[in-house]
Design brief:
Layout (H helix, E strand, L loop, with lengths): L1 E2 L4 H12 L3 E8 L5 E5 L5 E2 L5 H13 L8 E3 L19 E3 H11 L2 H11 L1 H10 L6 E2 L16 E3 L1 H12 L6 H11 L27 E9 L2 E9 L4 E9 L5 H22 L1
Antiparallel strand pairs: 1-3, 2-3, 2-11, 4-8, 5-6, 7-8, 9-10, 10-11
Amino acid sequence: MEAAENFSAGFAALAQLAIDGSQVSARAVDLLSGRVLFSVDDHIVLPTAGIGKVLLLLEVAARLSDGSWSRYDVLDRTDSDLIGGAGVWQHLHVPALPLADLAAIVGSTSDNVATNILLRRVGLDAVRQRAESLGITKSALLDVVRERRGPDDAPQLSVGSTAELAWLFARIARGEAVDASTSYKVADWLALGADLTLVASAFGLDPLAHTRSDHSLTLFNQTGTDTGIRCEVGVLRGPRAGVAYAVTVVFADKDISTRLEALGAMRTIGTDLLEYVH
């Protein structure tokens, strides 16, 4: 474990979670220099809920960039595709959407229906192969989104290490994930993200409108939420610096106070990040 002096509050908050029995992992790196600013057990692999959807978006963006797919390709939704949880398409009447629109609602609301429909078009094997081609070995999207996971299903939607995830987001920010066109498509989709309840709760941004600079801050991020799991990966840029960060907390979600303790620790890390970039 290591932390620069100005990350001591976040380090202490995660340490307290670990003392209380949670599994914690975190990493933050300076975008320009690559210097590690903060790390806590960042090489361990933990469940990351919806974070693995970013790997799907990378594959979709790569196919749009190389011309093998069109953003206007229309994908249909069937009754069997309807699933609860994250997202808006389950609440809409429209039975089909263009491919790029599906990617946008995955980026903005981590939409489960759109995720599964894109996965049906792409295939999990292609997502895995793309990740491996980028050098990603510890982070993976393991399955489609399911209402319930049975004994024959993957135990988690996705897993990852914060070291690898922060590295991946830094590459996206620099236009190095596959290529610049692919990277910037993914960053644009993720910049629509409306979930600013975890690390990003400290940044003071409008959850529904932060695609432009606000008080010299820009952000793109992805969150993963499930019972006892909170994870966020993102890139925050400010007037002084830019950072790529990843934080995962796995905890016994036994009562609201335990959950709020985990959320509070993640917000504390966000405050440290904000002070570093601003």
